[in-house]
């Protein structure tokens, strides 16, 4: 954990006043960093995703496509939501 302004896009301000590392796309913060441990990230489960580096406490729920156009587009994976032409 670093102290300071967290100007790096790979970091975010922690509750304790330092800077924690963001989790990669496809994962979320399972445990925030502290003075001894870095941010602990966990992979999104099937049906959930995060599209960018983040410090979210959970993943987004994938959208459910009901249109036929959705069947032709990629389905949801851990780092991307399903695409449809709505």
Automatic annotation (TrEMBL):
Ranges for domain TNFR-Cys: 6-41, 44-84
Protein name: TNFR-Cys domain-containing protein
InterPro entries per record: TNFR/NGFR_Cys_rich_reg, TNFRSF5
Record GO biological process: immune response-regulating cell surface receptor signaling pathway
GO cellular component: CD40 receptor complex; external side of plasma membrane
Superkingdom of origin: Eukaryota
Biological source species: Takifugu flavidus (sansaifugu)
Transmembrane segments: none
PANTHER family: TUMOR NECROSIS FACTOR RECEPTOR SUPERFAMILY MEMBER 5, TUMOR NECROSIS FACTOR RECEPTOR SUPERFAMILY MEMBER 5-LIKE ISOFORM X1
């Amino acid at each position: 954990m670093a102290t300071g302004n967290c100007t790096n896009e790979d970091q975010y301000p922690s509750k304790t006043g330092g800077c924690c590392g963001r989790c990669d796309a496809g994962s979320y913060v399972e445990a925030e960093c502290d003075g001894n441990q870095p941010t602990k990230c966990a992979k999104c489960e099937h049906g959930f995703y995060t599209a960018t580096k983040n410090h979210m406490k959970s993943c987004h729920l994938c959208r459910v496509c009901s249109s036929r156009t959705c069947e032709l587009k990629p389905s949801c994976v851990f780092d991307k939501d399903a695409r449809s032409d709505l």
